[in-house]
Amino acid sequence: MNFTWNAIYSDGEILAQYDEHGVKNGYENIDRTRLKSFALLADDKLLFKLHLEPGQRLIYRRRVFIDPTDPTAPPQFFYMIGWQQKIGEINTQSITYIYEDCHIEQAGIWAGGEPSQTSYEKVNGWLFWY
User: Fold this and answer.
1) Most buried residue among 44, 50, 103, 105 by CB atoms closer than 10 A?
2) Contact 2/42 with Cβ under 8 angstroms?
3) Three-state SS for 27?
4) Model pTM score
5) With 80 as the cut, is the pLDDT of residue 3 above it?
6) Burial zone of 72 (CB within 10 Å; 0-12 exposed, 13-18 middle, 19+ buried)
7) Are 81 and 93 in contact (CB under 8 A)?
8) Residue 47 near residue 102 (C-beta atoms within 8 A)
């Protein structure tokens, strides 16, 4: 399955991860001042769309996990899509996890912070390396 994203701006303009000539737009090319929603597509079909409210900032990451019990298993990928917003002194964040098989899981409040390259968490026997 091929995953790509679209950034949709408040004026209706769309910044696709790959333009019509196949040139890649990076995450850093998204104009966050105009961002209204963010869509993840699987084989060019809409899989998930996040609508952002005023004051919310996009969170988007692609992560890799490896089965520590089977070093020959290929790495698996998942996507983190969500938002962050500071309300008064409280930093609020919400994350949705989207897996290669297209199943979706919603997290509670994200603990925050950018994980280091040596960070990992163990979930259901899997190690998630960041």
Assistant:
1) 50
2) yes
3) helix
4) 0.77
5) yes
6) exposed
7) no
8) yes
